[in-house]
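Pasting two entries for a bug report.
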Amino acid sequence: MNATIDQLQDAVRRVRDTHQYVLENRRTEAVIKALADAAQSWLPASSPWRAQAVEQAPAVTGFSPAMVNEAIDRMFGAITADSLGALLDRELGDRRVLDEFRPHGRAQARAFGAPVIVHLLAGNVPPPGIHSIVNGLLVRSGNVVRMSQNDTVFPKLFVESVRAADPDLAMCVELLEWPRNDAALTQAALAKADAVIAHGDDSTIAALRRLATSQATFTGYGQKVSFAYVCREAMTPEQLPALAAAAAEDVSIYDQQGCLSPHVIYVEERGALGPRKFGAALAEAMAAFQARIPRGKLSMEEAAAINTTRSGYEFRSASDRRIAVWSSLQSNDWSVIYEDDPSFVPSCLNRVVFIKPTDGERRVLENIQRHATRISTVGIAPMSERMTEFAKQLAGLGIHRVCPIGQMQRPPLWWFHDGKPNLASLVRWTELG
């Protein structure tokens, strides 16, 4: 049910009051423990949260039950007491600054979480929304969360799992629904916010930034894509099966819906095996991944986009040896398209990936340059000393994360999403001395 302005204003008042209570009655280590306990309670096969998510989420998110199970393991397995503490220490210098004045530079300082954070979730993949709520609770803020219609299941169940671990902490979150095009409700929410965390496409982020007040800190996460690079030294018969399996995982997790999903994999020529061999091996690995974790249901528009893309390349491959297509036999579950053209081509998603041969990093840099502001992550195999220089050049284009292939969809909890800090914009500081 969509919220009304009165319900929204009541929610803001409640989380603001609860934030003050939790600020006075919970120390950081207790908050860390509650969040870690909540996350870990999802992991056993017998977990009631897991069971409810697997039952409810496929109908809302479109992901298969097996993918929901995989998402649970990845998301909540990464939220531990150690990773939460490391996130605080990395970004605030000392987690205890949220409890008391601590040495900070030449003075002492204490950090206070924003009284009210408004979170506007996108819902294409589950982790960003869960991480957003975790970050808000970690600094003991009050949190008003507008859920996406594409995922109401994970936020609701996660907050309930927090409630089981610490009822007072869970009262710092109010989950609401309203249409993202309801400007009046959105503006009413943003008018009360001390901080805003927004997820969505670029036009949505721009519109929300205009609606936010000048007093609120605004952090927006827009549209991103990713790609991978395979060096010639990795293209050996011994390494290829494991490498292809790792790449298939990066492509297939969350059905390629997230910003960390590779759309293109560049394969360097002059290895013991050529780029086409990588395409064939990736196709086998994609089929194996599909057998283990099936792709979710497609909308008519998504199915049409895949069919159009696949049939177009299959038609061209009949008369052009520079193109090859490997695909699932009985449906459009996955497609691997080899094209002897270095241009960066965004995929139509849902496990459709392009393989592009290249003569080196310089050629790749030339072809991704105009897309660089939209690129989130670059996966590389292997992460050699030679690739360190490539990473520097990618960073110079504004790309924020470079990691091994197979880890693209496993960022650590403390990673700088889109190059931005997770907690710094959510706290204010008071200095002493």
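Entry 2 (this is the one that rendered wrong in the viewer):
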Amino acid sequence: MKKHIYLIPGTAASSNIFDRIKFPKDEFEIHFIDWLIPVSLNESIEAYSMRLSKQIYHQNPIIIGVSFGGIIAQEISKILPSKEIVIISSIKNKYELSKILYFVKISRLYLLVTPKLINLTEKILSFTFGNRTKKQIEVYRNYLPYRNSIYLRWAVKQALFWKQKISIPGIIHLHGTNDFVFPIRNIKACLKIENGSHAMILTKGKKISSILLNKFK
């Protein structure tokens, strides 16, 4: 009988970020969870996770979440029984946030995260660094298509204000040593991926797949 794996991407990302994650098709069946637009900026992460969990149709699945998707995976595990919970480039409790993100939280700078700001940043980079950067931005947009203003503000706020104090037991946590969003120095009890960045799901797919395959056997 095949094991069912559900994949949750990071903030604003599509399922395309998992293109380099490979599992034997005769052993595993892959399912992708798509982001929903929050009902409002005040929708709780618990209510949102409940709505998102409706996309899971199999009992005791393996749930893999990247970055904010890892936080959501942990919230869903409180709702539905799961065989394994895997988080990649994410955090297991609020104390693993960096000092910089804590500053963004208390200063309310997260309110500046809007589609307009992202689009303006891309235009400035493209104009400043030329065609090569322009092509990179086009690739980047392919992976990060969700630009709804309510969704972006909600997701960033939920990550910063996540209330989890104690890590959920048994979580498999893969984390890059060069992660600048969630620095490795703040992360406890993880499997380190040398030279892995916050976007290592795109650059270390073969390594990540190999580690997880061994864990799932």
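Dev reply: Rendering is fixed now. As a check, the viewer should reflect this: The two ends are 13 Å apart (CA to CA).
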